[in-house]
Every structure is written in C-alpha cells, then in structure tokens.
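Q: Please design a sequence for this.
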C-alpha cells in the first residue's frame, strides 16, 4: 500500500481524529477510538509488572514504546509493514495523562502526526476527539444585518436558512414549512435567510440575491415580498424561452416595482440594482462554505444544522421536535402539539381497474 503525498492531504481539524489526517487509517480511527474510550480511558487497567511512570520530555523506554506499538497494531487495521514513530511525552489538557505524538511511515512517506494520551503511570493508552463547546451554537450563525421575520432579535430560537431563489426545493420549504413554523411559534422564533446561490447550476440565482439585498437594505417588508414572489413564480422567471437575459430583466423589474410600493428612494434602489455588487452575496457564500454548507436548502436551528428536510417522512413534525428542544434548552415552554392531521380513507372495490 502506498501512502498519499503529505502535501495533498487535508488539514487536521480535531485532535485525535485520524480520519482527517490519514485516509488509509479511517477504520483504524474508529476502532481505536472506541476501544480506548470504552475500555482503557474510563477503566484503568490493573497493575502490570514492568510498567513505569511516564516523564514529560523524556524518551520512552524501548519496552514502553513496544507496548504502545503493539496495542495500536492490535486495535487497528494498520498493515504491519508500516513503521510507527512515537514522540516524547508532553503535557496535555487531561489530568493524569500526557500527550504522545505518533507518526506512521511507509515507503518513505509519513502521515501527519496523530495524538494519543498516555497515563502518567504508564498503564493506559487512550485517544479521543476534542471539540470546543465554549460558544453557543446559535452564535456561530450570524444574522447581523439580515431582514428577519417572526420574533424580535431576543427570540429564543433563531432559524437561519441558506437560500437559493432559483432552487425549487427552497421554494417548497419557503411556501410550506416556514409559514407553519411562524404560525405555530409566533414570537418565539425568528427567521432569517442567508444567501447561497448555486451559481454553477442556477444562472439567475446570483442576480436574484443581489436584487433582494438591494431591497433589504431599504425595507424589510420589501425584501420578504420580493423573496415570496420570486420563490412562488420561479418557473416563470426567464419567460417561456428560459433566457437568462430575460430573467435578469424580470428580476430587476420585480425589485423596482416592490421598491415603488414600499416608497423607498427610487434612484438609490435603481442604482443598486444596476450596479449588481455581489460583495455581500460572496461573503455569505464564504461563510456558508466555512460552515460546511454544500447544498440548498440548509437550515440552522439555534446552530443545529438541518439538511434534507423534505426527505423526512413528516418534515413538519421533524422540525417541530428540533425547535421544541431548542426552546426547552432556552428555558421556554413549547406551544401545545398540533392535533394529528385527519387523512380521509378511500375504499376502492377489489374489482376496480385503473381508469374505470
């Protein structure tokens, strides 16, 4: 087996996550992590003859290094041909454990370093994933400067949807799910859209996002009226010929007409629409990509990422459960559950044939 070029490997994101460090060790990461956390890290092994205290900055004895090497090989699918290099123990954030760095080498190519924990008494080897939970997940998805619907800025639940105005699935959620959420939760939920136009497959999505933002800078009501209209009439944008030029013209006119209804400064709005400054949309795309957003619609409920909502058997119940959990976590009581929908039962005679 040949190791991949270290220069082409993705950066490590979480300490102890071998998956993002070295692709051949995918199975190794899962097996070793479960074994370490489930057994050794939680239940110290009994005293064993030959073990010795670990000293920070001091090279491990050959016997101790051998124990670690054999344990890693026995708990993983790493080929025996790989050589394992074990660094000197360093201070860790976990009481009673020091950190050691292990590197795997094959045919002259090395993996990125993988961190393990070694107990200070030299009896336990462990590995774990470290996640930062110091920040409220809700605060990781910014709604600053975005037009909002529903509750006030102090609403306990913030729903952020990464939206593409040319996306038919976004239009479906916009028409069916979000109105139901607002009707059920009223001021407990605040809804905000962030721009994520899929410009590779939706030729006028960027134009629509820019025009919406031009309106949003002057009027929240105008922004949502524009979004409502475009999502409801997206099949008509571009005319029967589906011309991008025609679509752009229609989108601009829809924005200008809405601005006129909202009595915004027409010269300023017209100048914004004509300029087509994509800066804000591009910034939203960059934020979305940093969060790992790769499809629309993607929804965050107080920072919890929700995708493929429409694939759920009961999408509304699915969203209600998540919002209810967020409300409870915020110390608020969710509204009563809605009554179950009554589905009419149709009895078809056994002798009926299609079309009869």
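A: Design:
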């Amino acid at each position: 087996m040949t190791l991949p070029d270290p220069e082409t490997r993705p950066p490590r994101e979480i300490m102890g996550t071998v998956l993002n460090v070295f692709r051949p060790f995918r199975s190794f990461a899962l097996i070793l992590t479960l074994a370490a956390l489930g057994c050794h890290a939680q239940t110290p092994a009994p005293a064993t003859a030959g073990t010795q205290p670990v000293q920070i900055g001091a090279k491990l004895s050959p016997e101790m290094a051998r124990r670690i090497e054999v344990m890693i090989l026995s708990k993983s699918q790493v080929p025996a041909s790989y050589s394992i290099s074990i660094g000197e123990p360093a201070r860790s954030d976990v009481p009673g454990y020091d950190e050691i760095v292990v590197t795997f080498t094959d045919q002259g190519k090395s993996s990125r370093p993988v961190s393990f924990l070694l107990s200070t008494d030299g009896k336990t080897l462990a590995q774990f994933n470290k996640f930062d939970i110091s920040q409220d997940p809700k605060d990781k998805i910014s709604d600053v400067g975005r037009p909002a619907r529903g509750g006030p800025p102090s609403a306990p639940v913030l729903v952020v949807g990464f939206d593409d105005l040319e996306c038919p699935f976004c239009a479906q959620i916009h028409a069916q799910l979000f109105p139901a959420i607002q009707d059920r939760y009223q001021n407990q939920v605040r809804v905000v859209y962030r721009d994520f136009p899929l410009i590779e497959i939706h030729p006028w999505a960027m134009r629509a996002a820019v025009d919406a933002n031009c309106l949003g800078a002057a009027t929240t009501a105008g922004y949502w009226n524009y979004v409502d209209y475009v999502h409801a009439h997206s099949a008509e944008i571009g005319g029967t010929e589906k011309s991008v030029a025609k679509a752009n013209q229609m989108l601009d006119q829809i924005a200008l007409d809405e601005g006129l209804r909202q009595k915004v400064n027409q010269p300023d709005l017209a100048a914004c629409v004509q300029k087509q400054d994509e800066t804000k949309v591009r910034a939203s795309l960059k934020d979305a990509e940093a969060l790992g957003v790769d499809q629309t619609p993607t929804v965050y409920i107080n920072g919890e990422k929700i995708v493929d909502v429409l694939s759920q058997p009961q999408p509304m119940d699915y969203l209600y459960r998540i919002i209810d959990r967020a409300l409870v976590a915020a110390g608020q009581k969710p509204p009563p559950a809605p009554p179950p929908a009554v589905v009419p039962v149709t009895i078809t005679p056994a002798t009926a044939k299609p079309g009869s």
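Q: Thanks. Anything notable?
A: The CA atoms of residues 72 and 339 lie 55 Å apart. The longest helix spans residues 168-185.
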